[in-house]
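Example (one chain per record):
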Amino acid sequence: MRKTIIGVMGPGNHPTEIDLHRAYQLGQLIAQEGWVLLTGGRKVGVMDAASKGAQAAGGLTVGILPDDNTSDISEAVDIAIITNMDNARNNINVLSSDVVIACGMGTGTASEVALALKNGKQVVLLTGDQDSQRFFTNLSPEQVFLVNSPEAAIKLVKELGIGN
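Predicted structure:
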């Protein structure tokens, strides 16, 4: 049976401490469910924090890298996919995920959320950014779900019927 892949997207540059804490928790919770964590794979920001959380809980982590710089891969990534596609790799992130959880918000994260919606994916927003919440909810109210904790995000993913 194919494993469930949960994409955790969030700012690599300038994440808040809350974003990093939540990302670490998300990684742990995803691993505890037996799901695979998919991130952007770099050793910065939300992607690194989520990968570290999943690794600490014994989970499997996949990183979709924007370039061929192997020195920039998070040490908590088990499987690194080198794309050399820069931001175009965001489409791979989204299409490979069964659901996308946005933890925090930045321009790259916004592009991933938009791509997810365009491709009919469900998106869980774990961000206090009300402008982002309003924008994405207005774009696609049936696909966007707002939560305020990692635990609520995982509970919602289960309620949506995602997971093995």
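Caption: The chain has six helices and seven strands.
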